[in-house]
Design goal:
Elements lengths: L2 E5 L11 H15 L2 E4 L5 H9 L6 E4 L8 H9 L3 E4 L5 E6 L13 H9 L2 E2 L3 H4 L5 H7 L5 H7 L1
Parallel strand pairs: 1-2, 1-3, 4-6
Antiparallel strand pairs: 3-5, 4-5
Length: 156
């Protein structure tokens, strides 16, 4: 069984400018993952994940907090395929499954999916609930009909 880690900035997604929406999306990711560690550490996403993984070993799946359409079955498929990842349309990494937490390297940022793929031998999966991240209000409108219950409740 994989340990789930969700990087999350307490102040929410600055591009959306709405911390309550960010919290609702996080709640949807947590609901899909079940028990999960929420990683919020100074220094960005890589530093937050690295800090959360300190001292851990065994399978780990890292899932961004801005994928409110994710389902438990998608997380199971990703975890089972480790090492594997789901890239965002812009080439960044929305989710990453590792066979062992000690395999993590902080390679996030522009083009990170290709870096993780090359460095870890990770397989790319196309799982819509993990692929479709919400960075803008247009993104949210595009996935509105598929978001989880917490984001749906927030949107009213």
């Amino acid at each position: 069984m994989a340990t789930f880690v969700i990087p999350f900035r307490v102040n929410g997604k600055t591009r959306l400018g709405d911390h309550r929406l960010a919290e609702a999306m996080l709640a949807d990711v947590q609901a899909a993952a079940g028990e999960a560690l929420v990683a919020d550490e100074a220094g960005g996403q890589g530093a937050a994940v690295a800090a959360a993984l300190t001292g851990l070993s065994g399978p780990v799946t890292i899932v961004n907090s801005d994928v409110p359409c994710v389902t438990p079955s998608e997380l199971e498929a990703l975890s089972a395929a480790a090492p594997a990842l789901v890239a965002a349309p812009d080439g960044t990494t929305n989710a990453l499954a590792l066979r062992d937490a000690r395999d993590f390297e902080p390679l996030y940022g522009a083009g990170s999916a290709a870096r993780f793929e090359q460095r870890l031998g990770a397989r790319r999966l196309d799982l819509a609930g993990l692929r479709d991240d919400v960075d803008t209000w247009d993104d949210l409108e595009r996935v509105r009909g598929r978001v989880g219950e917490h984001t749906r409740a927030y949107l009213g």
